[in-house]
Amino acid sequence: MSNILEIQGLKVMYGKSVAIHDVNISVPEGGIVTLIGSNGAGKSTTLNATLGVVPVTEGKILFRGEDITNVSTAERVRRGLVLAPEGRHLFPYLSVQKNLLLGATQRKDKAAIQQDMEFCFELFPILKDRLKQKAGTMSGGQQQMLAIARGIMADPKLLCLDEPSLGLAPAVIEDIGVKIKEINKAKGTSVLLVEQNVHLAFGAADYCYTLQVGELVAEGTVEDIRNNDVVKKAYFGG
Length: 238
Fold this sequence. Notes:
single chain, 238 residues, 4-stranded antiparallel beta sheet, 10 strands
């Protein structure tokens, strides 16, 4: 199976501080890969470098076989590399419908846009019920659903999700995990899930990378990582 994303020897610096060093991550075509780590481990930095939001000091990012290390963020999105960011970053004073359509800004295929809108409504029926409601007046869980749906509206080949569990109730987190798997199965969309919540990460993903203080300390199948001593100590206290 070929990889849709390959991050090779990635190093990112903020001023004179090293944020991440020698990070190597692969996401197979059609797979769900998770990157876990505590606060400040470098997860969001890795994602932001992948999307071109922060500059790469060393290393390479390959997307669908092409080097995109120096390609603009807008061009990466056009090619199908899409981020649902941490904190959701919705337009709070715009309706659910307008937020969804903003996700499809770079697309011209009206029929396909409508098809994806319908898919989002099947996935998250509450969005259809709240179509005219301002995004800022929805609950945290509903806003997270909208943020993921907006990502789908950009027609991603690889959907990157940054901490989708943040601030959500356990039942909502579980539902988000189920929906991530549904998106992957129904549309064949590859997923890179960056998470602090290991229960969501392990429940949704096939393969896992673990970051600690800017460096990868473990990788393997979810089962391997679940039984890894470093991870067990960090997350499960044993």
